[in-house]
Amino acid sequence: MEKIQRFLKEVRAEMNKVTWTGRKEIVSGTVAVLVLSGIVSIYLWVIDFSLSQVIRLVLS
Predict the structure, then answer these.
(1) CA 30 to chain centre
(2) Nearest-angstrom CA–CA distance, 45 and 14
(3) What predicted TM-score, i.e. pTM, was given to this entire model?
(4) Within 13 A of 46's CA, how many CA atoms are on the CB side?
(5) CA distance 43 to 37
(6) What's the sign of the alpha-carbon dihedral 22, 26, 27, 32?
(7) Per-residue exposure over 15-50, b if at least 16 CB sit within 10 Å of its own CB, e if not
(8) How far, in Å, CA of 46 to CA of 54, rounded?
(9) What is d(CA 16, CA 21) in angstroms, rounded to the nearest whole number?
(10) What is the pLDDT of residues 2-53, one digit of tens each?
(11) Which of 17, 40, 46, 49 has the fewest CB atoms below 10 angstroms from its CB?
(12) Cα separation values, 33 from 22, 23, 30, 57, Å
């Protein structure tokens, strides 16, 4: 039981040393990820659609 208590105290001490990211940085990072994911998704959709049309044209 003593080891567990010491471990939890050490965990708390380490957590207090952590520099947490601010809300503004988290929100801007999340927005950047969502925007880039959307752009990549649209790009891949255009490539997929174009290639499927080319294949359909070649096979018909």
Answers:
(1) 8
(2) 46
(3) 0.66
(4) 6
(5) 10
(6) positive
(7) eeeeeeeeeeeeeeeeeeeeeeeeeeeeeeeeeeee
(8) 12
(9) 13
(10) 999 999 999 999 999 999 999 999 999 999 999 999 999 999 999 999 999 9
(11) 17
(12) 17, 15, 5, 36
Domain ranges in the chain? 21-60
Find where tokens 């380490």 sit. 14
Which amino acid belongs to residue 4? I
Q: Record the tokens describing residue 54, joined without a space.
A: 């080319």
Q: Which residue has the tokens 């998704």?
A: 41
Would you state the structure tokens that stand for residue 44, as one six-digit string? Answer: 């891949």
Our measurement of the distance from residue 12's CA atom to the centroid of its chain's CA atoms, rounded to an integer in Å, reads 27
Place of tokens 């929100």: 27
Q: If you search the block for the tokens 């809300």, which residue do you land on?
A: 23
